[in-house]
């Protein structure tokens, strides 16, 4: 059932305030909440007690009564005392931006790991906000002198201990899942398969790019990831193997999207999931170039990556949804930037070429002479490498192969000559 809400935000002359409020409306709608009104205020600093000034609180209450809304949503994270004060004054449920995002993540989380990560973040958010039931009831009834305060405080401490214990238990289970993924990651590194990670703002089209590449270049084309035109459609990290016509292969990972004012606890909770991006050979920063605030979205993504210490990876900028943008020529490459439309599968091969330049730069074309009794070597190269030419001479099978460094080292005894060639 859809609930109704009034959105409230304050601006302290920061850039992109209007965009931030628009995004708050989108977040509300993603959580089945219909924003029916909006109130903003320009302040030098936030009111410590009520976030907005007293006059604005009265204005919010008047509009809330007129529109008969279910709750009020604020565009920043509120202190526990601010939430309590506002709910008392407005006589309505108060939700801040952080809780709104946490609720969306809780709804979208599908894998056990994502569910655990969201639960940890929610509990850490709730911990300083719980109020002892006994204490709250006493305040409401006007009772509760010194005699009853002790019981209320004891209940409060019990609740806090319970939540801390729950967080520890969830973290232990998470540690086990993280350890499993680290084993898988080490195995991939051992196999020397490059990793390419898609990163970017939520709903920029990362999953669409992954699905288009899987459909074109994967033996498991049926393993499409979930994609939908909505915020936070993907919370899990998906990994797919991409095999190119020349037998080169890499792993493509699709990560959770970012959003402005992403809760710190949520970033911390998803740190282990985003390690896939931290250890990637190249990042593809996917940008919705059709969005009027795409530059602010790019800045948010870069800030979040920096918070995760993901700052030294080679990066390709994929300006997606170019078909929806005004006056954008595509497909078009400019240095490390590419304008494309994943939905129309236009520009994807250019993206593949850019990936190849980054992750297959250790390839060289070599000529090998393999004795006829070493058919195993010929079979391996035909299966795993790009064999450009095969001829036969008295000494054995002559192969011209575009091979990576590990294969060149493995079969060094058979190499007669080598020349540099781009991957």
TrEMBL record:
One of its GO terms (cellular component) is cytoplasm. Its main location: cytoplasm. Residues 134-155 are annotated as: Disordered. Pfam families: GTP-bdg_M (PF16360), GTP-bdg_N (PF13167), MMR_HSR1 (PF01926). GO terms for molecular function: GTP binding; GTPase activity; metal ion binding; ribosome binding. GTP binds at residues 200-207, 254-257, 320-323, 341-343. The keyword Cytoplasm applies. The keyword Nucleotide-binding applies. It is found in: Cytoplasm. Keywords: Cytoplasm, GTP-binding, Magnesium, Metal-binding, Nucleotide-binding. Residues 194-363 form the Hflx-type G domain. InterPro entries: G_HFLX_dom, GTP-bd, GTP-bd_M, GTPase_HflX, GTPase_HflX_N, GTPase_HflX_N_sf, P-loop_NTPase. Mg(2+) binds at residues 207, 234. It comes from the Bacteria. Its cofactor is Mg(2+). PANTHER family: GTP-BINDING PROTEIN HFLX, GTPASE HFLX. GTPase that associates with the 50S ribosomal subunit and may have a role during protein synthesis or ribosome biogenesis. Monomer. Associates with the 50S ribosomal subunit. Belongs to the TRAFAC class OBG-HflX-like GTPase superfamily. HflX GTPase family. This is GTPase HflX. It comes from Listeria grandensis FSL F6-0971.
């Amino acid at each position: 059932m859809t609930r109704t809400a009034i959105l409230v935000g304050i601006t302290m002359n920061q850039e992109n305030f209007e965009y931030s409020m628009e995004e708050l409306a989108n977040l509300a709608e993603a959580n089945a909440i219909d924003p029916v009104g909006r109130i903003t205020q320009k302040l030098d600093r936030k009111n410590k007690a009520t976030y907005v000034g007293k006059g604005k609180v009265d204005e919010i209450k008047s509009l809330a009564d007129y529109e008969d809304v279910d709750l009020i949503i604020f565009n920043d994270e509120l202190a526990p005392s601010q939430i309590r004060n506002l709910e008392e004054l407005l006589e309505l449920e108060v939700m801040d931006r952080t809780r709104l995002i946490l609720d969306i993540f809780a709804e979208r989380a599908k894998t056990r790991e994502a569910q655990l990560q969201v639960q940890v973040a929610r509990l850490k958010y709730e911990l300083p906000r719980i109020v002892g039931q006994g204490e709250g009831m006493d305040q409401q009834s006007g009772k509760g002198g010194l005699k009853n305060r002790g019981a209320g405080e004891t209940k409060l401490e019990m609740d806090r201990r319970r939540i801390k214990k729950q967080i520890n238990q969830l973290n232990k289970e998470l540690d086990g899942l993280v350890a499993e993924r680290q084993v898988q990651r080490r195995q991939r590194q051992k196999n020397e398969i490059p990793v390419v990670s898609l990163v970017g703002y939520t709903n920029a089209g990362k999953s669409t790019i992954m699905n288009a590449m899987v459909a074109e270049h994967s033996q498991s084309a049926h393993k499409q990831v979930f994609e939908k035109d909505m915020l936070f459609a993907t919370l899990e990290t998906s990994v797919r193997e991409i095999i190119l016509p020349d037998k080169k292969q890499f792993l493509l990972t699709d990560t959770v999207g970012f959003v402005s004012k992403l809760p710190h606890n949520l970033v911390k909770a998803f740190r282990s999931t985003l390690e896939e991006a931290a250890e990637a050979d190249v990042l593809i920063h996917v940008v919705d170039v059709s969005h009027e605030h795409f530059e602010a979205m790019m800045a948010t993504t870069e800030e979040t990556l920096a918070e995760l210490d993901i700052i030294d990876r080679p990066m390709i900028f994929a300006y997606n949804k170019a078909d929806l943008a005004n006056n954008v020529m595509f497909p078009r490459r400019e240095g490390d930037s590419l304008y494309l439309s994943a939905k129309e599968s236009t520009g994807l091969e250019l993206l593949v070429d850019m990936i190849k330049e980054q992750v297959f730069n250790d390839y060289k074309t070599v000529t090998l002479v393999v004795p006829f009794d070493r058919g195993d070597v010929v079979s391996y190269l035909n299966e795993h490498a790009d064999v450009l030419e095969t001829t036969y001479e008295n000494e054995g099978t002559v192969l011209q192969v575009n091979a990576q460094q590990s294969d060149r080292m493995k079969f060094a005894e058979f190499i007669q000559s080598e020349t540099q060639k781009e991957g």
